[in-house]
Amino acid sequence: MRVIQNLYARTAVLLVLLRLSVAQYEHLGYPPGYPYPEQEEYTAPQLDPDTPRIQLRLAGQKRKHNEGRVEVFYNNQWGTVCDDDFNIHAAQVVCRELGYVEAVSWLPSSKYGKGEGPIWFDNVHCTGKEKTLAQCQSNGIGISDCKHSEDVGVVCSDKRIPGFKFLNTLPNHVENLDIHVEDVQIRAILSSYRKRIPVMEGYVEVKDGGKWKQICNKDWTQFNSRVICGMFGFPGERKYNPRVYKMFARRRKPTYWDYSVNCTGNEAHLSSCKLGQAVLEKSNGTCPRGLPVVVSCVPGKDFAPTLMTGFRKAFRQEQPLVRLRGGAIVGEGRVEVLKNGEWGTICDDKWNLLSATVVCRELGFGTAKEALSGGRLGQGMGPVHMNEVECSGFEKSITECSFNKEALGCSHEEDAAVRCNVPKMGFQERLRLSGGRNPYEGRVEVLVERNGSLVWGTVCSEGWRTMEAMVVCRQLGLGFASNAFQETWYWSGEVSADAVVMSGVRCSGTEMSLSHCLHHGAHLSCPKGGGRYAAGVSCSETAPDLVLNPQVVEQTTYMEDRPMFMLQCAYEENCLSSTSSEVPANTYRRLLRFSSQIHNNGQSDFRPKADKHSWVWHDCHRHYHSMEVFTIYDLFSLNGTKVAEGHKASFCLEDSECDEGIEKRYECANFGDQGITVGCWDTYRHDIDCQWVDITDLKPGDYIFQIIINPNYEVPESDYTNNFTKCRCRYDGHRVWMYSCHNGGSLSSETEQTFPGLHSNQVTHR
Known about the structure:
Mean pLDDT: 83
Low-confidence stretches: 1-5, 11-41, 168-182, 280-284, 307-317, 757-766
Shape: globular
Strand content: 25-35%
Number of strands: 40
Number of domains: 5
Number of helices: 12
Distance between the termini: 74 Å
Structural class: alpha+beta
Largest sheet: 7 strands, mixed
């Protein structure tokens, strides 16, 4: 018995030593199937000899890699498919033939643009079980009475068929290599890069048949590396030291993929590159005179390690010519360009992935995932600077691309937007929502290090507001915040995570992670404790965006002397200056009056935070206030000193007017619902109470006038930078003028500096 026990003990020791010895060679590569389980090898469908051999691809503008116009390669020519009788079963056959698990939808009438060449299939009838589109019933290949205005498109699911492999059935190697980004990885090899986030250098590996394989670097070009880096969120590539990788390749025999890749360098994704010749392997399993492909990528400044000062210098941020606005997460938004000192938008005519990728790289991101049109990420204000933009993909800036300076017929309903590839930073793994009814809500729980181990805990809700909730939703990729909760007793959460591990959180709203916000660190302070008072959020994919029309303010400004006895209600609501309490009722107050026209340019309706039952009734004016402070009016001296102020409660948020084709939804009459619909605006006329600034005590001179909407961030919006309007104001004691009115962020930084002493909405009221 003792001999057997000794044998077990020695065996255990040997196993431990074996694991330690294997661990030291971990950097040389993983054994087959590790860390991914072996998957069943994909087997290509066997086709009858009389079945036409075709190849499919997805093409067109304004698309993601898994959607587009269906194009067929047959008889050495690419053509299209007519939408007559096309249905979801036919889309299913197309998507599976392209390697996707299933079809999501199909789109008729050339939604992805008109194709070229012959229309190979018309009146297609599929059961959904066919192995190729050529097996479906149709008029016959090449027989059609359709036009290219009837070209059909499909949208496939993101998920790939496990082990799917493109087989080269055509002799000319022109078909697309359609590999989803999840099937490609950059695996860090050097120990100096293995723990670094994001992964910037290593082997390029393709998942094929459930196994990760390296690519032979024979015929590999810098253009291929450029595309790979762009896919993973990096704007460029750089040289690396090949010697050390040669040593690793000698120690660990690589498993090579069967094909090579041929990219031109301007592709947004590897799926747009062409498949090169099959690599002929030697008997010893290495590619001819080659090694595994290695890429080394250059990160943008927002993702560069702090010590890499060279990258910070490479992507200077002095006065950018391009910016993104209205996006929920980093790397997405409406594209705006600076021209003649004023920010404007781009019309979506001819907008495609090439142009969108130029924008993304210019801003320090990778290639574009999507080129969005139709104001999908909200509408801008001001001029439309560019139209019909066409780029080669190698420009350093979108301003170097050719474009039509005339934007006739373009409106902000056609504003172009982008979604860029950004590096994987691992932020989502350090935060979670717990206890909610759906994935978009719950108690906020963070992963922190305590006593050498990682533990989950809650966030103190004291001071928890919209800005902090915005960062949480962005970090989790859930869009915008819709609510910030300071009590979460109705969300039980994980019992093991009840303890408070973060307190004193203060965010500007632009951080990528909650840990980037100001907080107490290890010295926690949370008088109420966690539990029911832990912070919580609810998120939404869309948000409103209120923008004031500066021209209306400029055009409606005037001065009125009004007797005090007619201002009793305004006095009760604190709409007059403090000196008004010291004067008799027969005196006058001098009021600077103007109108406010507030547009909702976002993607969802603007609704008051408070429920209708909690609105405050003001007996003097005989109406409810749904927001006690909806706008703030301030008058500053030229050195930034506040000399007069006013405010306006939202006693009535309603749709005064709407864009053509949009119906009004909110009306205040009869205690109705309040809000501003997307595409509508609410006008506070100059002749209503409190729509003014009391300038009775103001001396003649030059001033700066400022209006701020939603100043306390009670209601989440997609963009707070445009919530304020500034004007120059001249008062001579008898008359008043307002001029140079503009919204926040609409002018260049140099022009903004001519308005001294003033800051943005976020800086002023944090």
